[in-house]
Amino acid sequence: MHFLSSEFPQSSPEDALFHIIPMPMEQTVSYGAGTALGPQAILDASYQLEAYDGTSYPGELGIYTSEAIDCSGDDESCFSNLEVACRSAYQTGKIPVTLGGEHSLSIAPVRALHATRQDFGVIQIDAHADLRDTYEGNPNSHACVMRRIHELGIPIFQIGIRNLCKEEINYRKQHHIGFLDAEAIYQNGIPITILPEDFPRNLYLTFDIDAFDASLMPATGTPEPGGLFWWQALDICRNIAQNRHIVGLDIVELAPKQELHSCSYTAAKLTYALMGISSAPPESAPLQLIEKRFVK
Amino acid sequence: MHFLSSEFPQSSPEDALFHIIPMPMEQTVSYGAGTALGPQAILDASYQLEAYDGTSYPGELGIYTSEAIDCSGDDESCFSNLEVACRSAYQTGKIPVTLGGEHSLSIAPVRALHATRQDFGVIQIDAHADLRDTYEGNPNSHACVMRRIHELGIPIFQIGIRNLCKEEINYRKQHHIGFLDAEAIYQNGIPITILPEDFPRNLYLTFDIDAFDASLMPATGTPEPGGLFWWQALDICRNIAQNRHIVGLDIVELAPKQELHSCSYTAAKLTYALMGISSAPPESAPLQLIEKRFVK
Amino acid sequence: MHFLSSEFPQSSPEDALFHIIPMPMEQTVSYGAGTALGPQAILDASYQLEAYDGTSYPGELGIYTSEAIDCSGDDESCFSNLEVACRSAYQTGKIPVTLGGEHSLSIAPVRALHATRQDFGVIQIDAHADLRDTYEGNPNSHACVMRRIHELGIPIFQIGIRNLCKEEINYRKQHHIGFLDAEAIYQNGIPITILPEDFPRNLYLTFDIDAFDASLMPATGTPEPGGLFWWQALDICRNIAQNRHIVGLDIVELAPKQELHSCSYTAAKLTYALMGISSAPPESAPLQLIEKRFVK
Amino acid sequence: MHFLSSEFPQSSPEDALFHIIPMPMEQTVSYGAGTALGPQAILDASYQLEAYDGTSYPGELGIYTSEAIDCSGDDESCFSNLEVACRSAYQTGKIPVTLGGEHSLSIAPVRALHATRQDFGVIQIDAHADLRDTYEGNPNSHACVMRRIHELGIPIFQIGIRNLCKEEINYRKQHHIGFLDAEAIYQNGIPITILPEDFPRNLYLTFDIDAFDASLMPATGTPEPGGLFWWQALDICRNIAQNRHIVGLDIVELAPKQELHSCSYTAAKLTYALMGISSAPPESAPLQLIEKRFVK
Amino acid sequence: MHFLSSEFPQSSPEDALFHIIPMPMEQTVSYGAGTALGPQAILDASYQLEAYDGTSYPGELGIYTSEAIDCSGDDESCFSNLEVACRSAYQTGKIPVTLGGEHSLSIAPVRALHATRQDFGVIQIDAHADLRDTYEGNPNSHACVMRRIHELGIPIFQIGIRNLCKEEINYRKQHHIGFLDAEAIYQNGIPITILPEDFPRNLYLTFDIDAFDASLMPATGTPEPGGLFWWQALDICRNIAQNRHIVGLDIVELAPKQELHSCSYTAAKLTYALMGISSAPPESAPLQLIEKRFVK
Amino acid sequence: MHFLSSEFPQSSPEDALFHIIPMPMEQTVSYGAGTALGPQAILDASYQLEAYDGTSYPGELGIYTSEAIDCSGDDESCFSNLEVACRSAYQTGKIPVTLGGEHSLSIAPVRALHATRQDFGVIQIDAHADLRDTYEGNPNSHACVMRRIHELGIPIFQIGIRNLCKEEINYRKQHHIGFLDAEAIYQNGIPITILPEDFPRNLYLTFDIDAFDASLMPATGTPEPGGLFWWQALDICRNIAQNRHIVGLDIVELAPKQELHSCSYTAAKLTYALMGISSAPPESAPLQLIEKRFVK
Ligand SMILES: [Mn+2]
Ligand SMILES: [Mn+2]
Ligand SMILES: [Mn+2]
Ligand SMILES: [Mn+2]
Ligand SMILES: [Mn+2]
Ligand SMILES: [Mn+2]
Ligand SMILES: [Mn+2]
Ligand SMILES: [Mn+2]
Ligand SMILES: [Mn+2]
Ligand SMILES: [Mn+2]
Ligand SMILES: [Mn+2]
Ligand SMILES: [Mn+2]
């Protein structure tokens, strides 16, 4: 089933602004963790969405859902398969929207974008910093993905973090990595402008759905309490998209559960909302609302 | 089991202010969706409630739980069975409290109230506008129920909506339907007075439990993130009940799940709280709190 | 939804051989046990059945599904409501098919049949003997229902039992109650003729679904391993129906579970198969097969 | 993850006897049924298998797991994508092993095999006959797939059926379709030779996992009691493979569930066992055991 | 597995500031309620925690996890076993951290602390007042535990309550018990100083996890909507710990569920965070943040 | 809660023939596998058992349930804690009944028995041979436990196996280990005498509950289809106990699941049945039944 098939026919890759790319990658060999089932669950749930996302009709710009990336090989071959798909999207001015799968996969669309020699930064919305050098001996682990990205020389900014280790705290400090952690959002609300003025104009957005509060998103590997609620997440994404362009994005770490179809649906709705934000003209954000919010 | 049987004996219909009416209607013939199991799950969970709802003791005014409405026939015969039960409640000055079942059922208590020639309006608390003309070819669908009600010439007001389609947006505009959508509540809080001054004094309240945030109420057909939390919902209901009378109400769309007894319990607790708000003297609302709230 | 609504329209009570009577009785006040949800789950699942039950088309004889019996009062008032419904069925030559609900409910259809002054016996298919005098202080408990029936002077026969207490063993011996226990079925197979020659020609059949093996029917209050599998259950029911008439029946103790729709479906399929056996001409049983079976 | 990656590296397509082809096709647009998640769940569970299947080491003949077939288009485009993959397998003498997904998909590997102009028959192991002309208006429904195959002029044989409708009974009779239904297996055991002497020497095997008893395989769309247990299923497959060649196969209709990882594992183990049977030299079956079995 | 075994080795009792004491007590004999499984589930989930709790590294002060308390006897013998373990902790200046199990168990660590003749008060964070004299005939019920504690002459303070009965309201008034109920927190936020100036300097903290909102913590016996979210809970605990010492604590009433590992993890994370707050120097709280919060 | 507390009071260790020893050991550090929750789930479920096990009243010989063994240390310290408890039971002529927990724990009761210098053999009922030298680098893994036992020079016999690897097949052959594998039981039934004449008269019985068919026991780490059903398991255990004494036993690998309370109950019922078989006078077995069975 292609994304939002209840509302829009499958576009050709050429006619679609959005290339939905299912990436059922799950490194951990333990039995039954479940992120490999995430992309399909998002596609299934997208059937229940409306064409209208509350602000605009992003589907009218065309959606093409590719077949699932081959994840049967080793890490590097998985990444490389995804990289090919993303490169082809970037080269034709499309927005690749990768559905995970484990967070480790983000290295691939980022590498593909890096190869275009565009200037860009990566926004990570996540409960975890993912800045370790290795994790359980694996440098390709989901817990290391932002480290790998940062090592490519790409600026990163972290939002929603509420679980990190000493190594990650040190790396952050040493490398002056920008962040807006979850407790600060609780204590002070969302600032008028999240990103520093000199952060690149082009953004790649990686949204680890464990950024959501554990109450809203229990269907993930390591749910963390104290996270984002729905409107906060949208506010944050609109905020970073002010005067900037989101040129690629991924939604990762959904591990669907039987009684929690609400989680699969929420991931699908988030995907569509991010597509809307990515394609909105920069001036469309309701500025006066943002001001009010801050006063609160 | 009758409602709140742990605290109050079953009253006779004559001695009870509240007539609880189980309505296990589920149109969609797909296997296992589950709203038909909603009424029984609310009755079961009500056993865990206290007589005190946090403000008053509504059960002291008498609760009569009727047997379940016969939902074995076609839509119209289901509606008509419920209409009979509600009419009998209205005629003796009782408050019918229908437990759903699909949202489509609300047409029946509304028709019964309409037949009394009283002036009244309908408050809908829901994630969805339910204003379509038909849905999957069915004009009696839960997605059309507010359209059907509005077509009877009854004023309606919508609260908590966060998913609607173009047809519904247009219908709203064309017919000047009042609303307080979910994002506005997030951005601006609850206004001092929700309802317009000229909205009727008598209210029928239909509460689709998907109005709650998907984190609090995953046990429903189409849970939506970005919805109401508990105290917000109570605040809203107390707010609309200021200087007005709730003369009938329904709680619909619970689809109970095994591991989520919290949802069945929350629906039962909501039912009892709405009974308390419906029977409270108008002056009982803690006004100074409401003011404080708005300042926030 | 009425029983098997995908294949047959709702008949009028007069035109239907079968009166399906939902009886959502659940005495135990503990939170969430779930037999009260059984009848609705069977009705929902019946939508998936075929008109053909593998042998005949019982639905062609007419099915009328009544609304659910009012179970909001005390035990005796529940029983009495069901008794009225069954009496009306018997008086017009119909077969009442009660869907439970707790096993305790069987006293009602038996009392109604007893009131007709017909000679009949009761066949109980169950994992438990249900022959206690009282259970947790309650003589109306599901664990006492066969004792209550036997005390009315009605002959009973028990099949599939594999859990009983000393009191029940003694009662069985003292009153020469016939039985075919589960271990005997495992060790020796099903005998050519289960019932003693002098057992009454008219039968009331009560099928507690925990008679099935715990692997096939985990969705019940006290699942027991070592029970019946599907074809064994059908064989047994056809066997007792040889040269006898099943004039009323119930299927009790389903406590539906989210991931186990197989159990609700199996209960629905059993209900329909028992309707087929009840309405088959006595000679229809495939005799030669039964012989073969025994040789095995 | 590729099939059985804990024991064998991914082979190249050229070096692998088995081509595992994930086919996450799910036509029914209803929300959350789940067969689309089947292929991934089988691949995940295969990690727990041993290289030894109890009889042989089929993995030593090479396993290649392709990426998932693109199922985002309409029925015909899904089929056609799978057909291409199977044709390429057949042309190089490989055995395509398609993992479903809905049963409707079987038309594709059968068409691809038909195109080779080989003489072959199709063995269907299933609870349902799948012989309808259309189902809910759709001739490509899973309930019609064997009809579509038979209409191509290919001989079919059905095993394990226990739910069919009048139309299907008639079609069977009219077209002299061979079968060994579930009740016959219960009553008489497995015959020494299941297939008629003149059935083709080459077989395509389609195994709908609802052929298993509902106790063993509740994780499917329409589980049916009275089905096959594990060793019976293997016995049957070894029996049909006597003196014949299985040249292609599929395992369909797994709808994985959270608490029932046993079902995903059983489907994976079945897949591997069928690979073993398909690649065993015809004489390898333990003949004397089969004889003993029949005596029983 | 000992608490947080992924980060710290098991300390000896002498070297550990924290004595984790699993207490799988579950009085209610009903089948399958599940709090007896709580302690083990917290220990299992603690494996996923980091050494850093967001503020400090409490594990560096040493953690000793004792074996589970013997709960096979009657209530009093269970309490007495736990009392012994706690007394031994207090006597050596350690902080006992009891993992429940039912709330009734709190009487034991409180009694043990009382026996030290220290002056202290008890902070209860809970959805329920637990102030009944008896419940279902049992004075040791979880619904009576705070009454039993208060009757020992120990000052108590209640936070987060949103469900109580008339008897409890009266007891509160009569005995001038301090409280900060859940609705007040919603309406007014958290006050700068929660505890009255004259409340004892030493605190025993009992945290019934149903104090959390039902959305965040459905895995408990009686989840209640309208409760605390994560950061609110931490704010409250830091607030009460200002200028005071937490000398013992318990986390009770987790009833783990299969699909809700988020709840077990949240309980483990709370346990560790409370250990951090208990061992922080009083001046460590971020005062300026607290002020900001109140302005909000 | 102690074992079977609904029927028997806790005995003192001295007065009890059976010492129930909960052993919540779970080596694998992966999150949420669940065997650590097994012992408590068995104790909880035992509340539903009857005093009569279908043959005798084993509880009348006294049951003492000890507190859970401390499993917070490394493997060896866990084993050693259990060994102490078992030694104390053996020394006073009691039967230790250990509830697991992972299968690896069986080494401890066996070592304790070995230390008594009694002559005995070990019967393993399991789906897996557990004869590897190491597994994932760990010689104490559950997959190695029978190898470790056999290396002590203790005779072993394996029943129900249906999943093993080449290394295990070779070890079996080399060391002439006796077995009765699952497929042989399916094909030929249970032999009149399972154990070789020269197998020791004293037996230690270790029952891995994955020996049961996956349909009956999905709540375990690696459920395998093709296993034992209830009466087969009892038959086998009675068979081996003919003319021999079971002097100690364990039931391991239950990983309880929310919707599958049937599995916890089945494990509890098995425990009690094995206690009955262990304490029955050797002549009590129904010999004529066993003969009949074989004829079948
Ligand atoms: Mn991440
Ligand atoms: Mn994360
Ligand atoms: Mn609605
Ligand atoms: Mn809605
Ligand atoms: Mn029973
Ligand atoms: Mn019964
Ligand atoms: Mn099929
Ligand atoms: Mn089928
Ligand atoms: Mn409490
Ligand atoms: Mn509480
Ligand atoms: Mn084992
Ligand atoms: Mn095993």
TrEMBL record, chains A, B, C, D, E, F:
Cofactor: Mn(2+)
Residues where Mn(2+) 1 binds: 103, 128, 130, 208, 210
One of the GO BP terms on file: putrescine biosynthetic process from arginine, via agmatine
Record keyword Hydrolase present: yes
Binding sites annotated in the UniProt record for Mn(2+) 2: 126
Alphabetical list of PROSITE patterns matching this protein: ARGINASE_1, ARGINASE_2
Alphabetized UniProt keyword annotations: Hydrolase, Manganese, Metal-binding
Co-factor binding comment: Binds 2 manganese ions per subunit.
Family: Belongs to the arginase family. Agmatinase subfamily.
Protein name: Agmatinase
Organism this protein belongs to: Oceaniferula marina
Gene behind the chain: speB
